[in-house]
Amino acid sequence: MCVTMCKILLLTLLLMAGSALCLHAQELAGDSAAVATEAVETTLTADSTATKGRRGVLPWLLNYFRNSNKERGKRFDYSVTAGPFYDSKSSLSIGGGISALYSWDRSDPELRRSVMSIMGKLSIKGMVGVEVSGMNYMRHDKSRWNYKLKFSTNPMNFWGIGYDHGINDAYKGEYKQIRVQFKPDYLFRLASNFYLGPTVNLSYTHTYKFTNRELVYGQDIDILATGAGVVLNYDSRDYSTNAYKGRYLRVEQLFYPKFMNKYYFNSTDLSFSTYHGVWKAAVLAIEFHSLLNYGGDVPWTMLAQVAADNNRMRGYYEGRYRDRNIMEAQLEVRQRLPKRCGVVAFVGAANVFRHFNDINMRQTLPNYGVGARWELKQRVNIRLDFGFTKNKTGVVFKISLIHI
C-alpha cells in the first residue's frame, strides 16, 4: 500500500509540474508568485539572451519562459536547462544540459537548422548517464552528418530472452551495467530528399552483480560489438525534430564481422514515419519500425528490445521484452493549444520474436496513452506522457528534441 501511495504521489507531482509549465506561458511576471515558485522547482533554465535590466531570479526566469521559443536570428541559439526526468527504467532523475539550434549557412533560409544537445542525468536508483547527440545539415543540404555518444552506469532488471520470459515475473533478476555507445553516420544527397552514406556502431557493455546469469544461455556478460554499414534515407519532413508534414524513411544495414567480434551477425533497422494535418493545429503522426538480427549468434545486449527508445512503447520497461527481432507501430494525434501548450493521444503495438515463423499475434504488446506538451523552444518540447502497457501504467517526463 505504501509503495502504491508513493507512486500516486509521484504521478500527481509530475502532473502539477506539467501544469505549471503551461501556466508560466499564460501569466505575466508579476501575476502569480506561486506559479513562479513552481517554475523554479520544475525547470531551472538559463539562456544567453535573457533580457538585461531585470532584477531577481524569478522575473528573469519568467521572461525566459515567455520568450524562449522566439526566433532571434542568432548564429548559435542555445539554452541551458535542468529539471526532473522520469521513466520506468531510471525512475525519478535530476538532469540537465545544453541544447542548441544553428545553421551551417545562414544565407540560405531554406536550409534546416542543425541541432545538438549535451544531456546528463542522475537518478534515485543510482543511474548516471550522459548523452551527446546532433543532426547537421550542411550547405545546400548536399550532405548530412549525425552522431550519438552515450555513456551510462545503472542498475537494470532482466527477465531473459523472449516473450515468455518477459511476461513472467518469476524470471525477473537484476544486474548492474556500464555501457558506452558511439554511432555516427555521414550521408550524401543522391536526389531530392534521398541520401546515402556510411555508418558505424560501437557498443561496449560491462555487467556485474548478475543475479540470473543463466538466462543469457552461456554468452559472455561483457559484450563488445563493432559494426559498420550503410544508411539509405528519404526525408521530406518540414522540420526534423517535430514535423507537421512530410515523410521519413531510414534503412540501416549493419554488419558485425567475425574478425572484429566474438559474436558476429548482421542487422537491418527500418523506420518509416508520415505526418499529416487533420484539423486546425492538429497533426497525425504514424510510425512503423522494425529491427531484424540474423546470420550468426546475436549477443544478448544487441537483441531487439521493446522501449529501447522512449518515443516508442511509452511506459514499458526498457528491455523487459527482447528477442532477435521486433516489429512495432504507433499512431499519435497531436493538438497544439494556445500559449505554446499541447496535448497528444497515442496508440501502439509491438511484437518480439526469434524467427518469422515464430510470430504469435496473441503475444503482441499493446500500448496507449495521453500526454501533455509545452514548447520550450521552437519545435523542442517538454513532454509528460502516461502510457498504459500490458504490465502496468508507465510515465515518461522529459525534455525531448526528437518526436516520432
Description:
This protein has 404 residues and is mainly beta. It is 12% helix and 51% strand. The protein has 4 helices and 20 strands. It has helices at residues 2-26, 33-42, 57-67, 163-166, and strands at 44-47, 76-87, 91-102, 114-123, 128-137, 143-158, 173-182, 185-191, 194-208, 223-235, 246-256, 265-277, 282-294, 304-305, 322-323, 325-336, 341-353, 365-377, 380-388, 393-400. The protein has an 18-stranded antiparallel sheet that branches. A two-stranded antiparallel sheet has the order 14-15. It is globular, with a radius of gyration of 22 Å. 35% of the residues are buried. Residues 1-54 have low confidence and may be disordered.
Which SSEs are present, and which pair or pack?
Elements: H1 2-26, H2 33-42, E1 44-47, H3 57-67, E2 76-87, E3 91-102, E4 114-123, E5 128-137, E6 143-158, H4 163-166, E7 173-182, E8 185-191, E9 194-208, E10 223-235, E11 246-256, E12 265-277, E13 282-294, E14 304-305, E15 322-323, E16 325-336, E17 341-353, E18 365-377, E19 380-388, E20 393-400
Antiparallel strand pairs: 1-2, 2-3, 3-4, 4-5, 5-6, 6-7, 6-8, 7-9, 8-9, 9-10, 10-11, 11-12, 12-13, 13-16, 14-15, 16-17, 17-18, 18-19, 19-20
Task: Give descriptors for this structure.
single chain; 404 residues; mainly beta; 18-stranded antiparallel sheet; two-stranded antiparallel ribbon; 20 strands; globular; disordered N terminus
Condensed summary:
12% of the residues lie in helices and 51% in strands. The protein contains four helices and 20 strands.
